[in-house]
C-alpha cells in the first residue's frame, strides 16, 4: 500500500493542447505560429479582395471562367473568416478551462 500511495503522489505531467503528455513548447513557438497565422489570414483576405475587385472593375473578365474564380474567391473569404472565428472560440475555451 505504501509504494502505491507514493507512486500516486507523484504529480503527473500536464497535457498539451493536443491532449498528449509531454514538455510544454517554448514561448517563441506560439508567437511564431501566431504571426504566421495572422500573415496568412491577411494575405488570404487581400488576395481574394483583389480577385473580386478585378472581376468587378474589368468588363472583359465577366465570363464563365472568371465568374467561377470569383465564386472561389468569395468562398475562401468565408472559409478564412470561419477559421478566425473558430480559432478565437477555441482559444477562449482553453483559457477559461485553466
From TrEMBL:
<feature type="region of interest" description="Disordered">
    <location>
        <begin position="1"/>
        <end position="25"/>
    </location>
</feature>
<feature type="transmembrane region" description="Helical">
    <location>
        <begin position="28"/>
        <end position="53"/>
    </location>
</feature>
<feature type="transmembrane region" description="Helical">
    <location>
        <begin position="65"/>
        <end position="85"/>
    </location>
</feature>
<keyword id="KW-1133">Transmembrane helix</keyword>
<keyword id="KW-0472">Membrane</keyword>
<keyword id="KW-0812">Transmembrane</keyword>
<protein>
    <recommendedName>
        <fullName>G-protein coupled receptors family 1 profile domain-containing protein</fullName>
    </recommendedName>
</protein>
Amino acid at each position: 500500500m505504501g509504494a502505491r500511495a507514493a507512486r500516486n503522489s507523484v504529480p503527473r505531467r500536464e497535457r498539451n493542447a493536443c491532449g498528449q503528455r509531454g514538455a510544454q513548447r517554448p514561448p517563441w513557438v506560439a508567437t511564431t505560429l501566431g504571426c504566421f497565422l495572422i500573415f496568412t489570414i491577411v494575405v488570404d483576405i487581400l488576395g481574394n479582395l483583389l480577385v473580386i475587385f478585378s472581376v468587378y472593375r474589368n468588363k472583359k473578365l465577366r465570363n464563365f471562367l472568371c465568374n467561377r474564380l470569383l465564386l472561389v474567391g468569395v468562398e475562401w473569404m468565408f472559409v478564412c473568416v470561419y477559421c478566425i472565428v473558430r480559432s478565437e472560440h477555441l482559444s477562449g475555451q482553453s483559457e477559461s478551462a485553466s
